[in-house]
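Morning F.,

Quick status update on the modeling queue. The single chain you submitted on Monday has been processed. Sequence for confirmation:
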Amino acid sequence: MKRLLFLTTIIYPSNLANRVHVINMCKAFTEVGFDVTLFASNVDIESTYKIVNTNSKKLLISAIRILQKSMFIDVDLIYCREPRLMAVVILFNFLIRKRVSYCFEIHDEPHTALDKFLLKFIFYFSNVVITLNDNLKDYVIKNFGSRLESLIVVLPDGVDLGLYQTESKPQNLFFLENTNPVVIYTGSFIWWKGVTTVIDAARKLPQVNFVFLGGREEEIKKIVSDNQDLKNIYLLGHKEFTSMPKYLSNADICVLPNSKKVKVSEQYTSPLKMFEYMASGKPIIASNLSSIRQILHDGENAILFDPDNSDDLSRKIDMLLNTPDIAKRISIKARHDVEQYTWKSRAAKIKSVILND
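Structure tokens below.
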């Protein structure tokens, strides 16, 4: 059995999507036959894989503790999605002449000269490079050399379909006082995720309930303070991804409103919520962006709208609520399409590439 170390500096518990990604990938690697050890900080979860706590939120300290605890472990593969952490580990293993295969997963362009240099260093030693979509693959090849093309595997994010196998019966989990249609947004409130576009659309559709699952406490307070006149928005805070099926079962529409004003959003993102929405069997309205069109296609498995345009979003919501045949058709197609985007299939593809390396 191949031994895999998954390295991260993420502090647990965390509401960030990358925490969900790491946990699910570790579980999936175990399911496809790897002996997995996760190195992270303050992890306290039930798992089918080993966990080594680094107990530090500082990158260098985490890296040193990872190196100390893994130095005498026979390792076949090191997997990481953080360039600075991966670079330190590669350098140390090179200096002590420890032979290990490396798989690096890149989610965005580097934003500093240092990170670009570190990526060049990482790619030199990597056996496999994972990109979330073709746009990011093209960026890597263009900026770091065509030799990387043979190392790159394009793998979007995924979902645990096991959570969605049992149909959740809609419940009044939101304590709504009316029976108006429900539009749901889940996830981060980072500005380029498009939450303000949804709130502006809510102003135009007072007969529709808009439910938000996510956001930090201070972000929620600010939205409530800035929109006290709105009576059709409900901000319920962060919910665990394992509970998402029962919440999404209450939706009439799920929205994915990413902004086009940031390159990572327009070109590179592979939102976890997109796959959760698809798995829920609910109709999706999403931003018409290159990153989103890698998975969702207008009129086929989703309805796409002009990014950052709340007028267009509100029109598309109104249209979909009044055309149940279209809503049903795109929902069925999305649920069918998501079957190929499981965490386990993602891990299996990586394993196949590694074993053939």
